[in-house]
Amino acid sequence: NCDRWCSLKNTEHTRAFREYLLKHGVEPMKEHASLSASLKNYGNPWFQPRSARNKWTKGLNIPKAAPGAQEVLFFAGCTSAVMKPLIPSLIASAKLLQRAGVKFATLGQDEPCCGSTLMRVGQAEAYEELAKKNVERFESLGIKKIVTACPGCYTTLKKSLEEHGSKIQVVHVAQEVSDLVKTGRLKVKKSAERMTYHDPCHLGRLGGVFEEPRDILKAVATLAEMPNHGYESRCCGAGAGLQSAFPKLSRDLASKRVAEAKSTGATTLVTCCPFCETQLRTVPGIKIVDLMELLLSSVENGEKGNDKAAAGKT
User: Fold this and answer.
1) Domain coverage including residue 169
2) For 72-129, what is each residue's pLDDT tens digit?
3) Closest to 156 in 3D by CA, of 115, 124, 196, 191
4) What is the pLDDT of residues 71-88, one digit of tens each?
5) In this structure, are 144 and 228 located in the same domain?
6) Among 197, 198, 148, 195, which Cα is nearest to 174's?
């Protein structure tokens, strides 16, 4: 959380330095060059075929976006869509929206990268080209709102749309379902289990979204805050190209975060970012759970309880 403690705005400067070096002929780090090459060839930074992009939607009956057909677009994001351990979080997000009666579509295997990776590693021109294409595509489909489960996609899409003068609203899925819980469209069953919450950098410090994830967690369990939370939350170590370029430093940051989570006495560490989830799972010692999966389980348990109660009255 460099920007929180230092007035020099290190995050912006680091990105600007990377951009400057690339423009002046300095070769990118091989790890960053690899990410960029994968994005160019596969549309994601993980060397996964484009056909893998929509496998997570199998059996969910989610329509593919067509001009004027749906106003809400669910944007899965590169990481969750192609990484098998993360697919359950996307499925949970979609099922929660469907249970609440939200009508939405996806772009299927044609979903592009949001451009976050390109921007973070200094590929400014490639990012701008991709951002422009993305905005034009969203506008051509008549999209009014984009719901995404990835904090990196959330901040990047908001930036792209605002810079290109688009009025399309971008929300993180935690914001969307928090309202659905508050209004009773999603009914939960609360557990007495003690859990703590990790603020993703992009969703919290960069996106300003702190309360909605906590509102969800407090509705389904007992929240135990870590000493460093909210704006003071520690980074998990996965973002800004750090994980690929400096794996040891990245893991050290994750280890510190898990140790802090354990100090709360919580049995479970909850987050709502695919990068954070993957990173924190590399450190043993505490159960890591995605917020949407946790909420879906609570909703399903509540429905089972209601069914039993109804059966007992007949």
Assistant:
1) 2-181
2) 999 999 989 999 989 999 999 999 999 999 999 999 999 999 999 888 777 888 889 9
3) 115
4) 999 999 998 999 998 999
5) no
6) 148
